[in-house]
Amino acid sequence: MKAGKLIYTEDVAAPGTVLVTRQSKLTGKHNSMVVPLPREAFEDGLAAWATGALIQDAFPTLNANQREFVLTGTTPEEWDAAFGEDAA
Length: 88
Hints:
This protein is of the alpha+beta class. It has one domain (2-87). It has 4 helices and 4 strands; from the N terminus they run ββββαααα. The chain has a 4-stranded antiparallel β-sheet with strand order 1-2-3-4, with helices on one face. The longest helix is centred in the middle third of the chain and has 12 residues, at 39-50. The radius of gyration is 13 Å and the shape is globular. The mean pLDDT is 90.
């Protein structure tokens, strides 16, 4: 499934999770991350976010790194390299 430039699919290796792939807004690299939500819950979050919900409200069970990845495709490692470990 594709939502804008965000691509996701159920992660068959880890049931109840979604594999999200997105191009990093910092590096341009295509990154992937496993998000601990079933596909339906992830899609509900995407729909809420698309209609104006804040990312933390649309995905309340995701941590800050996971939400940043959904927003920008930026991995924690890229964030640390760009802004330092204490910037998060």
